[in-house]
Amino acid sequence: MPTLGQPAERDEARPMHAEAAQASPPLERLRARARHENFPVALRVLPPRYRRHLLTLYAFARMVDDIGDAAPGDRLSLLDGVSAQLDRVYSGTAGDDPLYRGLAHTVSMCDLPRSELERLVEANRRDQVVYRYRTFDELLSYCALSANPVGRLVLRVFDSDSERRRLLSDRICSALQVLEHCQDVVEDAYAGRVYLPTVDLERYGVAEDDLVAARAGTGVRAAVALQVQRAVRLLDEGAPLVNDLRGAARLAVAGYVAGGRATARALADAGFDVLARTPRPRRSHVAASLLTSLGSGGVR
After folding, report:
1. 8 A C-beta contact, residue 183 and residue 279
2. Is the CB of residue 225 less than 8 Å from the CB of residue 272?
3. What are the b/e assignments for 195-232, b being 16+ CB within 10 Å?
4. Quick one: average pLDDT of 218-229?
5. Is the pLDDT confidence value at 9 over 90?
6. CA distances in angstroms from 39 to 4, 182, 278, 290, listed in the order given
């Protein structure tokens, strides 16, 4: 039976990241991957200027994740290089790299705070030294670095930032991150990481080797179902943000909520067995949920 990867083995361990990550992968390849996310990163009906900014932010976040997940060599050093490049972005000397040049434009046009971009880098630094989260609250503290900054940056793109909206956005982004962790249990396990809270695995009698079985047993299904339930609750708490926004911002955020709901449905439809295959939301379900979110403000 396969066993969970050890931290030192992670260079060979990520089946979903067969291509070695670069410090700055080709921009178009990164943007193309947006089509395979659970939620619409930048709906085609959005005005082009918003789409460009959203895809630029996605490309940066994905590039940083690829370094933290799959880059060969010293990942902490590579992540330090990203921070150094952010120094140049904010000093007006981004250089010729298309990704950072585009990021510099978005930073300037949308007045993006560096702190939120740096938190994405810090999340990947944490991934190099923290491989387990004992409680759901600990996992949410990780989401505050790995996911919530993206939503806050999106609000800035649409010039819709406020303290209330940031808090609602945090709920949505944390929910999306938890759902992704549920989908990626096997991938993460082979990389030596377990994002399902340890106390929940213990509660349902799940050994870590159970996370790489051919099919999910009752305990694994129960642990995943609990995280999905928590994620749906977070979506419900954050969904009022949709009605608090107008125009393109409302449409974009409704798309994120819809993607989360459709992902939760896919996990439930699979009986929470995330080991036999990775449950993915159907586009038709995302579209239906989007219409519902726009009609109800995301609240069910």
Report:
1. yes
2. yes
3. bbbbebbeebebeeebbbbeebeebbbbbbbbbbebbb
4. 98
5. no
6. 29, 15, 16, 10
Q: Whats the size of the chain, residue-wise?
A: 300
* d(C-alpha 36, C-alpha 34), whole Å: 5
For residues 217 and 265, what is the distance between their CA atoms, to the nearest angstrom? Answer: 19
Class of residue 162 by CB neighbours under 10 A (exposed 0-12, middle 13-18, buried 19+): exposed
pLDDT tens profile 251-279: 999 999 999 999 999 999 999 999 999 99
Structure tokens at 20: 């070695």
Q: Which of 35-49, 72-86, 136-150 has the lowest mean pLDDT?
A: 35-49
Query: What burial class does residue 172 get, using C-beta atoms within 10 Å of its C-beta: 0-12 exposed, 13-18 middle, 19+ buried?
Result: buried
3-state secondary structure at position 194: strand
What pTM was estimated for this model as a whole?
Answer: 0.87
Amino acid symbol at 166: R
Exposed/middle/buried for 88, CB within 10 Å: 0-12, 13-18, 19+?
middle
User: Which pair of tokens denotes residue 158?
Assistant: 């649409």
- Residue 128 CA to residue 56 CA, distance in Å, equals 25
Residue 10: the pLDDT is 37
User: How far is residue 234 CA from its own chain's centroid?
Assistant: 15
Instruction: Give Cα 61 to chain centroid, integer Å.
Output: 9
Both tokens assigned to 240: 């009022």
Each residue of 113-147: pLDDT tens digit? 999 999 999 999 999 999 999 999 999 999 999 99
Alpha-carbon gap, residue 35 to 280, rounded angstroms: 13
